[in-house]
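Hello,

I think I submitted the MU-OXO-diiron job twice by accident. Can you confirm which output corresponds to this input? Input:
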Amino acid sequence: MNGDATTDRLSAEEIDDVGSNASQNATMGDIIAERLSRRELMSGLLAVSAISAVAAPISMLTACSQPASATPSFNFTEVAAGSDGRHHVADGYNADVLIRWGDKVLSNAPEFDVGAQTGERQATQFGYNNDFLHFIPLDGRSDHGLLVVNHEYTNSELMFPGIDPTAGPGKSYEAATRNRVDVEMMAHGGTVIEVKRDKGKWGVVPNSVFARRLTAETEMLISGPAAGHERMRTSDDASGMRVRGMINNCGGAVTPWGTWLSCEENFNLYFHGKGALDTAPGAAALKRYGVPSERYPWAKFHDRFNIAKEPNEPNRFGWVVEIDPLDPTSVPVKRTALGRFKHEGAGNVINGDGRFVVYQGDDQRFDYVYRFVTKGVVDTRNRAANKDLLDQGTLYVARFDADGTGVWLPLEHGQGPLTAAAGFKDQGDVVIFARLAADLVGATKMDRPEDIDVNPRTNKVYLMLTSNSDRSSASVDAANPRPANTFGHIIEITPDGNDHAAPRFSWEILLKCGDPAVAAVGATFNPLTTKNGWFANPDNCVIDGGGRLWVATDGNSKEATGRTDGIWGVETKGSARGTSKLFFQCPAGAEMCGPAFTPDDQTFFVAVQHPAQSPSREQVSTFDKPLHRWPETDPQSKMPPRPAIVAITRKGGGKIAV
Ligand code: FEO
Ligand code: CA
Ligand code: CA
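Support: Only one job matched these inputs. Its output is below.
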């Protein structure tokens, strides 16, 4: 972890997006030859790029040859891009706050009192920084179901009075109190709530039997190749089979059998003990994972977060956690076969042959895209039969070649370089140190791979690459073609033969993001895109029932792009391909997470994360002096801004954006 970055940046995610990948496997070869790839040459795009860096090469070609009436399929009036302390949705839609940080989840939860918060109270209430969410229907209904929600991290400076976010982690550690740490640990994890739509309006069902909070202390099991492994054993758990809590759960997914895959991302932020780094067992691996980052002061009160005392504890985080939301007494399971890294989501599909395939991004500059293919097949009629399906299968990492094709490289012990001689004694070592294994097989270093989702109608896979301003002109490659990639891009992957387990795939860049009116940016939105419709920093995504792609962003702001983060509908088909339209805009300082549709496409749930977070070191926003107090509307209120879930519905009913 880069210490300088820690002091210069304020947002937890920005702190952590500094690459730790020192391996040599950049996509090599002649950079010019790569950029002018066979694919681009074949499709004649080079000529277009040379004529104009403003317009989208792909879409420009198609748009020029199509009637001017070509329009994207998203039918709504765009929001005007901008930035203020409110949320905005397209005309004709309601966007109602459903649940906020501190709201009641369990039946014994007290009313939220921000001045009297304790860990005990927080453990019964809605957590902080809602990220991934998904609607799971009850009895097949679209107006009644469960919402599963990740709580990624905490913004101490907005939760508690008197905290200066510019003071740096050292001062934060000194000042941290036991109560503050308790609250933060209980505000992490996840939530299950029962929700119902009544007379058009969504509400949380009180005292639901499904209601559940998961926290940084919830007992969980470890399964798969790393279960019981010597590197998973600690003084708290000599078996290496159990772990307390899940942390920094960012993206996720729901399986076809209705379990929730909640993905641990920047777990390194919680570990301390830099002084012990060089002498700790597995020092190189700790560094490759950015451990210890020393961002959160939990180690002050919990030895397990100090690597000098518990060098194996970090190995117990960075996994995909499977949770059964229908059984609030079920024990969550960390499925280690899917690999350990900074997971974003877990976009998945039942392959044509019945096997289950999970696509995964490792969200860090210069890290990789992974795929897991189960050994067994999904039983669509017997839910219980899929209970341990994720424990056996093959983990792969992606190499994107310059000719527009790619290869899934297996990470299997004993294959290729993954041998004891290279430090991998067994498959447990391979999954625990998946990043190091991926380094050795020659994976392609990407520009922060975030969500990946499969369009089940077309079998195309959409990969969000948020940004990578550290990429230099010497390290660009065909799949990450922009030096200093501030604005991010989206790649469309097509598995060979529509087989998600196939060894090869083809790919092309759907969009290079940023302001298309600035030639130097090199954005490639379809010229049909308005000045409101372009965006930067794609992060989360979802495919609606009509097979359309919706993109949520992280990193837009008044200062960076003249707009806050939000949700954009992005056309992937026909002559309007590459066109984007702004549907929902976050309050300033917030990041857009979620998003999820009900099966009938009539409700769009979105997660507003860290509203009013400081936009810069010069403009610091705190509990005592917040940028704004969203979603609070009472001007007299002293309530701090609160992360919240918003339910978007069409006035008068009907599907979203049709
Ligand atoms: Fe937590 Fe990668 O976003
Ligand atoms: Ca994300
Ligand atoms: Ca995010």
